[in-house]
UniProtKB/TrEMBL annotation:
Keywords: Membrane, Transmembrane, Transmembrane helix. It comes from the Bacteria. This is Cytochrome C and Quinol oxidase polypeptide I. The chain crosses the membrane at residues 12-35, 47-66, 78-95, 101-121, 141-161, 173-196, 208-230, 236-260, 272-293, 313-336, 343-368, 374-394.
Length: 405
């Protein structure tokens, strides 16, 4: 049998590496280092999205749906081919940015993701294919595949219109939107339905249909929020706003399901797991409200002109909603053991850096002064995240807190 715990450690290793690169990027502002800043940004983002989140999610999907199927050899081929792609990106992006060899490995990674998607859909047991979890996960994989239209189109866009055209940025935003909202968050929602079904919580077909339709349509329409920086006609604001409202309605349905079944959920979770789940719900609600705000022309313009608001929102979604939710599922299904110290340190780094990033955005917007040593505080806050990940990866080798194996 495949040791899925070891694959999760690989994904956490990528997260640790991405977090350390984040520290390097923020230290660069304080004390310039002999690196190409933009190249390290590319490496940081690719390893975070494709190394940490993608490997963690696909390992969870294999562990929960395919671990008892006779497909171990096929999965190993996919896993190691994916590692080859990630290693190639690690060895090329820091030294050349977007260039021939890094693009080759990034392209091969897209093919690896198609391979996994086809593998999962083909071999998922029939007994699970009618579950609400599988339906969400299948559509999440299709969103992931669809998001790759963005990168595939970049070559043609650069040839015809050039990298300075609005189409270049729109292609990147298309990819990011459907990666974050379509693939990652919908996949996490599918895992949440798996969790509910695991607890034998019954959800009516009608309720699920309302949730699914509002959420999927909301994901599609809210892409228009990523186009508002171009100053399009008002109908695009309306469509984007409708998408944000539909996602909020879907979230409300999910919260109502949890409220109705709160006694069952409380009895199945440790206090730490329950607190993490509540935190994910709060972070997701804030994320959706911020998304809805950008449907209004004033805030859409603000998000487009104050870069820190966009960076803060993306980190809130990635480090907050997505990463903390993954921690919850890994802990609940026994793939990692979280300690209170690790979670407290991670959240401390996350909240401190988010507060500082949004403060700088507010300063740019409202003319507030930046306090002395701002950059040093931001770099220090960033350092807390890799320290927390070390506690997650090697809990028994750190003496700050006694944790179980």
């Amino acid at each position: 049998m495949i040791a899925t715990k070891s694959h999760i450690k690989v994904s956490l290793g990528y997260f640790l590496l991405a977090a350390l690169l984040g520290v390097v990027l923020r230290t660069f502002v304080v004390a310039p280092l002999p690196i190409n800043y933009r190249f390290i940004v590319h490496t940081h983002s690719h390893i975070a999205l494709l190394g940490w989140v993608y490997i963690a999610l696909t390992t969870l999907l294999y562990h929960l749906f395919l671990d008892k199927q006779p497909v171990e050899k096929s999965y190993r081929r996919i896993f190691w081919f994916t590692q080859l792609c990630l290693l190639g990106m690690l060895l090329t992006f820091p030294f050349q940015g977007y260039a021939l060899f890094s693009i080759i490995f990034a392209t091969l990674f897209l093919l690896a993701s198609y391979w996994f998607s086809a593998f999962f859909i083909k071999y998922a047991p029939k007994s699970l294919k009618n579950t609400k979890a599988y339906i969400c996960l299948k559509y999440a994989l299709w969103f992931m595949i669809g998001s790759s239209i963005g990168p595939w189109s970049l070559g043609a866009i650069m040839t015809v219109w050039g990298p300075e055209s609005i189409w270049y940025r729109l292609a990147i935003y298309f990819y990011l939107h459907f990666q974050y909202n379509g693939w990652m968050i919908l996949a996490l929602t599918g895992l949440f339905f798996y969790f509910l079904e695991y607890l034998k919580i019954n959800i009516s077909i009608k309720t699920f249909r309302y949730f699914f339709l509002t959420t999927v349509l909301g994901i599609i329409l809210s892409f228009f929020l990523s186009t508002l920086w171009t100053g399009p006609p008002m109908k695009y604001y309306i469509l984007g706003g409708l998408g944000a409202v539909l996602q909020l309605l879907g979230f409300g349905i999910l919260i109502n399901i949890c409220f109705i079944n709160r006694t069952i959920m409380k009895s199945a979770l440790t206090q730490l797991q329950l607190n993490i789940l509540k935190l994910v719900a709060f972070l997701l609600l804030v994320k959706m409200i911020l998304q809805w705000l950008t449907a209004w022309p004033y805030f859409a313009n603000l998000a487009a002109t104050v870069l820190d608001f966009t960076i803060g929102y993306l980190h809130w979604t990635f480090l907050g909603v997505i990463s903390v939710a993954i921690f919850f599922f890994l802990e609940f299904f026994g793939l990692i053991k979280l300690s209170k110290m690790a979670i407290a340190m991670y959240l401390g780094g996350f909240l401190l850096t988010e507060g500082l990033i949004f403060y700088r955005g507010m300063a740019a917007w409202l003319g507030w002064p930046l306090f002395e040593d701002y950059s040093q505080f931001l770099a220090f806050g960033s350092l807390l995240i890799p320290l927390a990940l070390i506690l997650v990866l090697w809990p028994n080798k750190v003496s700050w807190e006694k944790t179980e194996d």
